[in-house]
Specification:
Helix content of chain A: 25-40%
Number of helices of chain A: 6
Mean pLDDT of chain A: 88
Radius of gyration of chain A: 19 Å
Number of strands of chain B: 7
Order of helices and strands of chain A: HEHEHEHEHH
CATH topology of chain A: Rossmann fold
Low-confidence stretches of chain B: none
Number of helices of chain B: 3
Shape of chain A: flat
Largest sheet of chain B: 5 strands, mixed
Number of strands of chain A: 4
CATH topology of chain B: Beta Polymerase, domain 2
Strand content of chain B: 25-35%
CATH superfamily of chain B: NADH:ubiquinone oxidoreductase Nqo5 subunit
Shape of chain B: elongated
Strand order of the largest sheet of chain A: 1-2-3-4
CATH architecture of chain A: 3-Layer(aba) Sandwich
CATH class of chain A: Alpha Beta
Number of domains of chain B: 1
Mean pLDDT of chain B: 89
Strand content of chain A: 5-15%
CATH architecture of chain B: 2-Layer Sandwich
Structural class of chain A: alpha/beta
Strand order of the largest sheet of chain B: 1-2-5-4-3
Oligomer: heterodimer
Structural class of chain B: alpha/beta
Helix content of chain B: 10-25%
Largest sheet of chain A: 4 strands, parallel
CATH class of chain B: Alpha Beta
């Protein structure tokens, strides 16, 4: 943090658990490697040296959804691809965030067609919608900063997407799944 | 390299009765044949030394619904000869519900294009080894490139549910 060396030896700093956890999460949002169309090219450009996504702690594009926190849906989502997107989203461990990158992912864009999903929010929940066709790398960086802002405000208790025991029981009851024990 | 005129001449010599039309268009031969004789003609095009069409570039179709033509579809085959360096376009007419013989046993590359035509136009190919939908998912009801199909489809206003695609197209 830069000021700790000015403190006398043996000092302690007090903070809330929420703040320190959010600080950690905010500055290491690892995106999932997932490109669907031309927006993915901009996403790659963002990760390279000129725009340098590493300044925001998001340079580690993980090849596995199980190691990532952020899903950047970069491009046109066709209906045939939608089950895979949903599956990858479900495989990301909580907490997780989603950026709908570009016009196609946000609302279908120019593809008013029978084959294209008109916005990924019909398939998975979206945190930040990023306009543009395709958005410039600065746009993606702005979206990541928005995500960071959102993470900074998050509460540990009462997260809306946390799964409780009651939720699991309700889910199993709806689908006639027996719970062992 | 045979010119379009020579190609047409060679075909007409052998299949005089079965050719519906044969013309030259922008330096390429365009031949329309009755679908009963399609396989015979294809075999001839494949084997004849002067023609030797050994590459099937693409299979596609045209829907003539707005023109109210009786055989509704044209199936179009684009052929190339690598050895003789010439091309031609072969067409055949087919009506709704009728079947076209598959040319898979002459050109293996007909496999996917014929599946695509079946998917997009609903034209069935007789003798195709694996006639499934190629682009749309299994269980999809319509054939999107038919002229009576709206561009946006029938469920455009509804929220899309990925569970609609029940069978996973790519097996994990």
């Amino acid at each position: 943090m830069g000021i700790e060396y000015l403190l006398p030896e043996g000092s302690i700093v007090t903070t809330t658990l929420e703040k320190i956890v959010n600080w950690g999460r905010r500055n290491s949002v690892w995106p999932c490697t997932f490109g669907l169309a031309c927006c993915a090219i901009e996403m790659m450009a963002t990760s390279l040296a000129h725009y340098d996504i590493a300044r925001f702690g998001s340079e580690v594009f993980r090849p596995s959804p199980r190691q990532s926190d952020l899903m950047i849906v970069a491009g046109t989502l066709t209906k045939k691809m939608s089950p895979m997107v949903k599956r990858i989203y479900e495989q990301i461990a909580d907490p997780k965030w989603v950026i709908a990158m570009g016009a196609c992912a946000s609302c279908g864009g120019i593809f008013q067609s029978y084959a294209v999903v008109q916005g990924v929010d019909q398939v998975i929940p979206v945190d930040v919608y990023l306009p543009g066709c395709p958005p410039r790398p600065e746009g993606l960086l702005a979206a990541i900063m928005k995500i960071q802002e959102k993470i900074g405000k998050e509460r540990i208790h009462g997260r809306p997407d946390i799964i409780t025991e009651e939720d699991i029981k309700k889910y199993c009851k709806e689908r006639n799944i027996k719970i062992a024990g | 390299m045979a010119k379009a005129k020579d190609i047409i001449k060679l075909i007409q010599k052998k299949f005089k009765k079965d050719i519906i039309s044969a013309e030259e268009f922008r330096g390429e031969a365009v031949v329309k044949v009755k679908k009963e004789k399609l396989l015979n003609l294809c075999e001839f095009l494949y084997k004849e030394k002067k023609l030797l069409f050994n590459l099937l570039v693409d299979v596609t179709a045209v829907d003539f619904l707005p023109y109210d033509r009786k055989p509704r579809f044209d199936v179009v085959y684009i052929l190339t000869s690598i050895d003789n360096e010439h091309r031609m376009i072969l067409k055949t007419e087919v009506d709704e519900g009728e079947k076209v013989p598959s040319v898979y046993h002459i050109w293996k590359s007909a496999n996917f294009p014929e599946r695509e035509v079946y998917d997009m136009f609903g034209i069935e190919f007789e003798g195709h080894p694996d006639l499934r939908r190629l682009l749309m998912w299994p269980g999809y009801e319509y054939h999107p490139l038919r002229k009576d199909f709206p561009t946006k489809g029938y469920d455009f206003e509804q929220t899309w549910d990925p569970e609609t695609i029940k069978e996973n197209v790519i097996k994990f």
